[in-house]
Amino acid sequence: MHADETSPWIIEADDATFQERVVERSRELPIVIDFWATWCQPCRMLGPILENLARDFDGKFLLAKVDTEKAPNIAAAFNVQSIPAVYGLREGQLLDFFVGLLPEPQIRSWLERLLPSPAEQLVVEGKSLAAQDPAAAEAKFRDAASLDGNLAEARIALLELLLDQLRTEDAANVLDELEKRGYLEPAAEKLKARLHLTAQADKPHDLEALRQAVLTSPGDLQAKLDLAGALATERQFSDALETALAVVSSGKKDFVEPARAFMVDLFRLLEDQPELVTEFRRRLSTALY
User: Fold this and answer.
1) What is the pTM of this model?
2) HSE-up (13 A, CA, CB side) for residue 61
3) Is 248 a catalytic residue?
4) Conformation bin of residue 235: beta by default, left when phi > 0, alpha when psi is -120 to 50
């Protein structure tokens, strides 16, 4: 049982190619993974059904056939204990799966639930346009948000696009819509932190003058907060965190919370510097408690 070379929507993948051919492609369209083996009779019955459906759906999903004999590590990662086993991926995330041989109508219904809604499809299209045509991408994201008011992904994608264009006021309006729900997803929290830093960067500042102000008046906590913000915009993150931590350690109620919030914003932005974040998280916790 091999991938059909006449169809671009049916491929094979193994341990070496799975990340590129399956996980990365799932960011463009849904992926259906068919775990099978040559010795498995139900697999040989299910395979043609899935392949025919891949042709029928004509690009709405990609069928990735994975021979468990050739991809034992991938099968183990998905905790495949019996085959056939079929998994659905979108955006690198597992959405659903089933095990065993199912009739074609039931599989077709399963596939339809896996596919993105019209609003979700607009978000996918917008993301593909973001780099080359931001205006078209923005229109897609706004249309998606209008079509499905509960689709946070649309507003999060729009927020990121607006920040990329340094449109901080528009970005703040989108963030406000997201926050009205009473919570933010981790991706939105990170963009909120980025918005705060971008807004700080928009303020004119003289770094050396701010340093001198702190040296001249070490008890001026607002000056220290201003210096921390300026240091962050200059990407001097360690010094920015150190300066904000000094404000937290002062214990002055009116300044502790803004300084703590500033540090948390930087933690979210510095995921690629885990040692720095871990150090200052520990020190912040000590200062607070």
Assistant:
1) 0.69
2) 28
3) no
4) left
Report whether CATH 1.25.40 matches the domain 118-182. yes
Tokens representing residue 97 in the block:
């799966």
Q: Which residues pair with 85 in a beta bridge?
A: 35, 99
Overall average pLDDT of the 1-22 stretch: 82
Identify the active-site residue in 11, 22, 43, 270: 43
Can the peptide bond before residue 84 be classed as cis, meaning omega within 30 degrees of 0?
yes
Query: Contact, 69 vs 121, CB < 8 A?
Result: no
Domain range list for the chain: 10-114, 118-182, 207-288
Residue 277 CA to residue 283 CA, distance in Å, equals 10
- Whole-number Å distance between alpha carbons of 256 and 224: 12
Q: Is 209 a catalytic residue?
A: no
Please identify which of the residues 10, 40, 46, 247 carries the catalytic annotation.
40
Q: Is the dihedral of CA 229, 235, 241, 243 positive or negative?
A: negative
- The contacts of residue 156 (CB under 8 Å, 6+ apart) are 178, 185, 187, 188, 191
The architecture that CATH gives domain 10-114 is 3-Layer(aba) Sandwich (3.40)
| Cβ count within 10 A of residue 60 | 17
In the predicted structure, residue 4 carries a pLDDT above the cut 70: no
Q: Regarding beta strands 85-90 and 31-36, do their DSSP bridges make them parallel or antiparallel, or are they unpaired?
A: antiparallel
Give the SS3 label for residue 245. Answer: helix
Percent of the chain with pLDDT over 90: 80
Tell the residue number behind the tokens 């008890």, with chain if given. Answer: 219
